[in-house]
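Hello Y.,

Per our agreement to keep a running log of every chain we model this quarter, I'm adding this entry. I've kept the format consistent with earlier entries: sequence first, then predicted structure.
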Amino acid sequence: MFRKISLSVLLFSIIMPTFSQTVIKRNGGINRLVAGVSSDSLRSYIQTLVSFGTRHTLSSQTDHDHGIGAARNWVLSKFQEDALHSSGRMTAKMDTWIEPADKHRVNRPVLMGNVMATIQGTDPADGRIFVVSGHLDSRCTNIMDSTDASPGANDDGSGVAAVLEMARLLSRFPLKSTVVLVAVTGEEQGLLGSTHLAEEAKENHWDISAMINNDMIGNSVSSGTDKHDNTQVRIFSEGIPYVETEQEERLRKALAGENDSRSRELARYIKTIGNTYVDNLKVVLIYRRDRFLRGGDHIPFQERGYTAIRLTDFYENYDHQHQDVRIENGIRYGDLPQFVDYEYLRKNTCLNLATIACLADAPSAPENARIDISHLSNETHLYWQLPKYGKAKGYYVLMRETDVPMWQKKFYTDSTEITLPYSRDNFFFAIQSVGENGLLSVPVFPGIGR
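Predicted structure for the entry above:
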């Protein structure tokens, strides 16, 4: 009997998988900030946005209750309310311009407006800016239909709702770096608002460290396949940078750095933040600039050399996207608020908020990170300089095998160099700053040096 029990225990121990322990360490202030995200607030924002009937770019500019003009004014009023709680750190404005007519989706010159909230950082020496956007405009099946009902609850009322909720909370939560929250317009007519903003940023030499585009982050049911999942969200990030120079191209090819652009490192960073601060949400990294042959408001920023990604639903529902409101063959079409999953939207808003708070209160990445190539070795020597912004108490050197998407190991040092007993032939490396508050910068992929 004893032998039989012992054998069973032995077989059980062999069959059972081995689980390694993972310690989740959360910053207390950021954890409390994230806990403040309210599903009820998000629902209220979307219901108000839908109440304007349509937010088409070419809809009414002057009606107080209907159209894009009324929607812009309401968002501006919400930002102004939040600014009252910011001790003077937050300002709100509507950045307007006249978009000329084209032969595509703008049939006449039209007044455009991006509604912006700027929350100044508390460190006057920190010049970084972090941008978060959602697009305010909506559309029907016909892209030029500016009068029929176009609720835009998820596309992109959900993104704007996330921006509004972030403004409410960040107005009361001082961060070292500056955060710009913006409801852009004209996305459906050709990324007009984001192009204007990205060009303005470039002309004014904004030091944008990261841009997050939230476009459809509140739907959890797929059309056609009828799959339900509010535990996963996608991040799209470019591999080869759009503005890569010939010299950068040669270096990328030499280092096999196609999967380690700044956007890819930001995407990995956001996944790590999600694992830390947002329960029951898996961040899925999609190694594409955007969805198949499609685009969004992060692209104009990428085209001007900024680090930018897109956050979007894991499933798209084409019955509730770019559709006239109607019932046809028993199917309810239209982007209506009853189809938004507000718990899913809450989690995705938490992901945005935690990411921006961590980035804006952490030091910037180390400067001039390099792998020493002065001689052949089975060891790897890396070195770098202090971050440009903020103070680092130390650094993590990250390591992964070349066929693995996420960093596997990290080594801590309070020096600005390290030698590891791992071959640079077989592993990729990156370095990130560790702030005195324990918050981490986005990792930086090293170049080569001697």
